Amino acid sequence: MENVEQVIEQVTRIFEEGNVDLTSLWVNETGDDIRNRIQDKTDTCAKFMLLTMIQCLTLYKAKNADYGDSFSKTYAKYGNTSVLVRLSDKINRLDSLLGREGVIQRVKDESIVDTLKDIVNYSLMTMYELAQNKNK
């Protein structure tokens, strides 16, 4: 995992290059307001969170391409129960990764951070489905 200063540098570079339009993320603020607030060197947590959200979005796009939008299809079929099952699986995985010292992790390619990113993405996808269904 990168240290906070590396994250700050990456997010600052993203903003300076103009590669991110954040106006849709904070509804009542202009892009310049958001850019100024997040570029403030004292707000390191916000910068870290932004970079993590960008990483989560990239992960979402890749997994959605691989799985063929299975989350939306499952949600349409089973509703909120599908969310509870998926989140429960991830919480159980997180519990396993965090809580059992001395246990050898056999799946080496899924870290605590990976599991947390999956939880973030499942939460955001659920919020999207709820918003979509609200309009129906």
Compute the number of helices: 6
Listing every helix as H and every strand as E from the N terminus to the C terminus, the arrangement reads HHHHHH
Based on Cα principal axes, name the global outline.
globular
Distance between the termini: 42 Å
Beta-sheet strand percentage?
under 5%
Largest sheet geometry: none
Radius of gyration, in Å, reads: 17 Å
Regions with little confidence, pLDDT below 50 for 5+ residues: 22-28
How many DSSP-defined strands?
0
Q: Structural class, please?
A: mainly alpha
Helix content: over 70%
Nearest-integer average pLDDT: 77
Structural write-up:
This protein is an all-alpha fold and 136 residues long. The protein has two domains: 67 residues, no CATH class; 68 residues. 73% of the residues lie in helices and 0% in strands. It is built from six helices and no strands. Helix 1 packs across helix 3, helix 3 crosses helix 6 and helix 4 packs across helix 5. The protein is globular. It starts with a helix and ends with a helix. About 5% of the residues have low confidence.
